[in-house]
């Protein structure tokens, strides 16, 4: 049974600018990039209702929000910029990358997949970006992420899974058509679309032993939360015990999840808007429920909050 509820969340993890916090009083649950309005927008939630709020930063051509919603990397006028959700301030990252963007769990580092090679930046609490050395990883990347230390990058290319740091880069495993991955502790979980499975690469900083965790038809995204492995496939979301591979739940949805990205406090973004008729879809991993987040146009939202 599809579990659709209007999002009513009580996490206030997103830092808002003073002028916005006065107008967006109440609980919030994260920040998303909204393609139709070309803006970073906060998900505003109250018991029984939620909606996409006013723009925190606009005139953007794409955006990848950090876990917790403090920062985002966005494309603006053909240039990659770091955006602060608290102030809307932008700082150039000195690159024109149109490839994937990946954060580490603490949002202290972010990596960009550029045709000229992957780029890695250390992000301070204040939002200052410092370029870090990273070896190799040239060519087209389909996904990228950063380890907890902020010094190593993992990436997917058409021929396999790679790891790179300041000294070297190497292939961890030849996985064709990998759809996405998730790093949890010392294990990298990979959605192997061609193999119809999710793989676990343990100790990827060293030997990177590979094992099959579960079989799943054409997985498009994976995530790990509290020892549970989540995989999106078709119009379903499946959940397993990551250690034992026991299936714990299967949610049948009336939309096709396109991602499983961390928002905050056990909340994951499953789908973002592609056009004005579309809707944001969010998973509450604590209750295993999926929530529909409607959106009004920005002018209507501004009038509502005045």
Explain what this protein looks like in three dimensions.
The protein is mostly beta strands. It has a domain at 77-174: Thrombin, subunit H. It is 5% helix and 48% strand. The protein contains two helices and 28 strands. It has helices at 18-23, 298-305; strands spanning 4-6, 28-34, 39-46, 49-57, 63-65, 71-76, 79-84, 90-92, 101-103, 109-112, 119-123, 129-132, 143-146, 153-157, 160-164, 169-173, 178-184, 187-192, 197-202, 209-215, 219-225, 228-233, 236-241, 247-252, 261-262, 267-271, 280-284, 289-293. It has a five-stranded mixed beta sheet with strand order 1-28-27-26-25, with no helix packed on it. A four-stranded antiparallel beta sheet has the order 5-6-7-8, with no helix packed on it. Strands 9-10-11-12 form a four-stranded antiparallel beta sheet, with no helix packed on it. The termini are far apart. 45% of the residues are buried. Residues 1-25 have low confidence and may be disordered.
Note the main attributes of this structure.
306 residues, Thrombin, subunit H, five-stranded mixed beta sheet, four-stranded antiparallel beta sheet, globular
Layout of helices and strands:
Layout: E1 4-6, H1 18-23, E2 28-34, E3 39-46, E4 49-57, E5 63-65, E6 71-76, E7 79-84, E8 90-92, E9 101-103, E10 109-112, E11 119-123, E12 129-132, E13 143-146, E14 153-157, E15 160-164, E16 169-173, E17 178-184, E18 187-192, E19 197-202, E20 209-215, E21 219-225, E22 228-233, E23 236-241, E24 247-252, E25 261-262, E26 267-271, E27 280-284, E28 289-293, H2 298-305
Parallel strand pairs: 1-28
Antiparallel strand pairs: 2-3, 3-4, 5-6, 6-7, 7-8, 9-10, 10-11, 11-12, 13-14, 14-15, 15-16, 17-18, 18-19, 19-20, 21-22, 22-23, 23-24, 25-26, 26-27, 27-28
